Amino acid sequence: xxxxxxxxxxxxxxxxxxxxxxxxxxxxxxxxxxxxxxxxxxxxxxxxxxxxxxxxxxxxxxxxxxxxxxxxxxxxxxxxxxxxxxxxxxxxxxxxxxxxxxxxxxxxxxxxxxxxxxxxxxxxxxxxxxxxxxxxxxxxxxxxxxxxxxxxxxxxxxxxxxxxxxxxxxxxxxxxxxxxxxxxxxxxxxxxxxxxxxxxxxxxxxxxxxxxxxxxxxxxxxxxxxxxxxxxxxxxxxxxxxxxxxxxxxxxxxxxxxxxxxxxxxxxxxxxxxxxxxxxxxxxxxxxxxxxxxxxxxxxxxxxxxxxxxxxxxxxxxxxxxxxxxxxxxxxxxxxxxxxxxxxxxxxxxxxxxxxxxxxxxxxxxxxxxxxxxxxxxxxxxxxxxxxxxxxxxxxxxxxxxxxxxxxxxxxxxxxxxxxxxxxxxxxxxxxxxxxxxxxxxxxxxxxxxxxxxxxxxxxxxxxxxxxxxxxxxxxxxxxxxxxxxxxxxxxxxxxxxxxxxxxxxxxxxxxxxxxxxxx
Length: 520
What we know:
Elements: E1 4-14, E2 17-28, E3 33-37, H1 42-45, H2 47-55, E4 67-73, H3 85-95, H4 101-104, E5 108-109, E6 112-113, E7 119-120, H5 125-134, E8 139-143, H6 147-150, E9 157-161, H7 164-175, H8 206-218, E10 222-225, H9 232-237, H10 239-242, H11 248-260, E11 278-279, H12 287-291, E12 292-293, E13 299-300, H13 302-305, E14 310-313, H14 321-325, H15 328-333, E15 335-339, E16 344-348, E17 352-357, H16 376-384, H17 388-391, E18 396-399, H18 416-433, H19 450-453, H20 466-473, H21 479-496, H22 503-512
Helix pairs in contact: 2-3, 8-18, 8-21, 18-21, 21-22
């Protein structure tokens, strides 16, 4: 059996973005061994054992009797996961002249190889194939179970494979100019309308619904405070239905994140995510689970999973204080960087934050609070986790009143469809207004720098900002809070169809900032 050098390609992940990896294999006679270089993790290093077992099933591929050296280039870039197995196997087969080198050299191979030779699915195939397509690759071989996901990327031919024996046979046929029968690719189901929870199901709560509409229209963060059973979770769950559907680029971006997390289906269930995601981690979630991280492989957290959607933190004061403090930077930047000794990974995290809190630990501290068993110290400690710097970034803070008996027979309120139409109109006005100010697509009022709103030609007259100016001068409001109130007032004006906010809109924005009764 011939020996020599074989080459092919694969793709690695850096955060939620892929980078093409050149896979080289050198096979020579001598003391048997299988070495893999190129800064791979333990899963990559263990690839040699899986490949030797799979190669034993193929005639004329005595890998265990040869000295094999594999290099993953760029060698200084960290490689993670089992997705390099198939590329390493093909490179070794090419070095041993089992497959034609000129055929496999420019083909990307992604997949895990089992001991029985089966090619098994791996997470993150969508961003991997997308990265390959962006670098000019035109052919990619993936596991059958990942083929539907890979086909979401346009401009690239997807070739599904079930086991390595079949793949070697197909490459041998290609090298001899014969036709190849491929495994049928699962059909991708066109994006279907996703169920939307209707806002009309929430009885009453006019102030909270107004805040929800303003939050959706301008991208403002929201705090809902009120007793248990008041409808805080119901309101938060209906916020994604008010947001515009994701455009093509956003849809691909969000779907790629869920692919990395292994949250997409397989085969015929794979589809692009077209609606803004709704993510609600448990209050016992760790900082790595919410923000992102991990001891070995750095994984995206809930704030990245909620990218372009809604992050809902129910029972917010029950979250670890360190987790809540870690939200401050992502809220400002729209991204989060996780630093380790060997690498730093940046994840996108542009989300709409919704906080929900009870009035006190027992939940009965509303109204006269006759049934409340909490001491003043317990109440201060409870809301102490909601620090001033965090609340300063929350534009809308609303108290959700408990439902009364009069609400039982109240007529249904506005539907999600009608409110979403106003939100879409408001966002269209913002997109036109800030087209030259904001760099990223579909910019909203919440993204506008305060210096722009306080300068010409957008500066509001003193007659409109009188109350807001007095609040700033008294020290009851920070300059960040001042700017955020201005942004919120512009959103209120957009919802009402006004050209610019007046005093009523500015005062309403300021009042909505403190209606929850939580000191900011």
